[in-house]
Design goal:
By secondary structure, the protein is an alpha/beta fold. It contains six helices and 17 strands. Strands 1, 2, 3, 4, 5, 6, 15, 16 and 17 form a nine-stranded mixed beta sheet that branches. Bound molecules: flavin-adenine dinucleotide.
Length: 353
């Protein structure tokens, strides 16, 4: 059966819900199609001890403040899932769960054709908000097939209990790598080696997601007003010193080794021939954007992204991209940042239609 709507939103995580909020305000008829069977987007899959790097009131979608979590300045992932589930219900957003979009095609006439595993939609515009969680990235490394232990990515990590008594190598100098290394090290029952491509750069202890957002906002304003570039957040460091990271670092448990050059059957080897045995390697090496469903539109650049002006795809004015990363707009892949961009996308679509 083919459904007809003004707009299809692909993905019902925070970006898809923010899009829904603003499409509703524009009076547009829309459906959100989400592959996951339950609300919460990527947050429902994150590891047990994960907390936000901003307080609740600085982690809100448009229209509704995230309530504080009792006893926690920085809410945990479960609190975010509850907030998103409540948000969706409160605004009565039409989210169809367990529906994976396989292809978006140019279609016939003025409509795009959206093919999902549960049906087909014809829409005058599409907002793609499929995130990155479903596309974990693993770097190429010699010997990957040789290692006889367990290899996991951030997406598979749950808690230190899964590694009791084991030697674990955590790879990655970003927030996920630092937080998972700290989680394992503070547990006290896991032998952890933390490995980073370059020396880890901790942000000052008083900088959390609030300050990062303020710096990003100041940069955007400066650029919009033709003033000189204020540098943005990249110059400040990479790792937010959230309480567990700070505790592990201050206890001397977060000392990074440089990247090894190959895997062996029972561990890893560095360029100077030194070797470490390991039972498991956890790759905290990032993600790529989930864009496969847009392949029929043939819009990707050599870098693998779809070039955009704001959120609008340069090669297809009926397509907007939301979330994913800063390339679809400043702070687009954050709870607090996605709202403004969702508003811009919904307005642009309303004008187009
Ligand atoms: P997602 O939450 O991944 O949602 C995408 C949805 O699209 C999913 O439900 C998925 O099932 C669905 N989907 C995917 N493909 C398809 C398809 N083909 N068809 C239909 N549906 C599809 N941000 C903050 O603001 N504060 C933080 O503290 C913070 N901490 C983070 C910690 C970690 C470890 C990570 C990885 C990210 C963190 N972020 C944080 C960044 C960001 O807020 C999250 O990554 C967030 O989940 C992104 O939301 P999203 O809606 O863009 O994508």
């Amino acid at each position: 059966m083919t459904h007809r709507v003004d707009v299809v939103v692909v993905g019902g995580g925070q970006a898809g819900l923010a899009a829904g909020y603003h499409l509703r305000r524009q009076g547009l008829d829309f459906t959100v199609l989400d592959a996951d069977p339950a609300p919460g987007g990527a947050w429902q899959h994150m590891w047990d001890s994960l907390h936000l790097f901003s307080p609740a009131e600085h982690s809100s979608l448009p229209g509704r403040l995230m309530p504080a979590q009792a006893g926690e300045l920085y809410p945990d992932a479960g609190h975010v899932v509850d907030y998103l589930a409540d948000y969706e219900k409160r605004y009565d957003l039409p989210v169809q769960r367990g529906t994976r979009v396989n292809a978006v095609r140019g279609g016939v006439g003025d409509r795009l054709l959206i093919e999902a595993d549960t049906g087909t939609w014809r829409a005058r515009a599409v907002i793609s908000a499929a995130g990155t969680w479903s596309r974990p990235f693993l770097p190429a490394i010699p010997g990957r097939g040789l290692f006889a232990g367990r290899q996991l990515h951030t997406v598979n990590y749950r808690s230190p209990a899964d590694f009791t008594g084991q030697r674990v190598i955590v790879v990655g100098g970003g927030n996920s790598g630092a937080q998972i290394a700290a989680d394992l090290a503070l547990d006290g029952h896991v032998e952890v080696t933390w490995v980073t491509q370059r020396p880890p750069r901790f942000l000052a202890d008083d900088i959390d997601g609030r300050a990062l957002f303020d710096v990003a906002t100041a940069r955007r304003r400066a650029l919009e007003e033709g003033r000189s570039d204020t540098g943005g957040v990249a110059s400040l460091g990479d790792i937010v010193a959230v309480p567990p990271v700070r505790a592990a670092r201050d206890a001397g448990l977060l000392v990074a080794k440089p990247m090894f050059s190959q895997l062996t059957a029972d561990g890893v080897r560095w360029a100077d021939a030194s070797h470490a045995r390991a039972d498991a390697i956890i790759w905290c090496t990032g993600f790529r954007p989930a864009l496969a469903h847009l392949a029929p539109l043939n819009l990707r650049s050599a870098r693998g992204h779809i070039p955009t002006d704001g959120t609008r795809a340069l090669g297809e004015p009926r397509l907007h991209l939301l979330g994913y990363g800063d390339w679809t707009g400043p702070a687009s892949a954050t709870l607090i940042g996605v709202g403004r961009l969702a508003r811009d996308a919904a307005r642009a679509i309303a004008q187009l239609l």
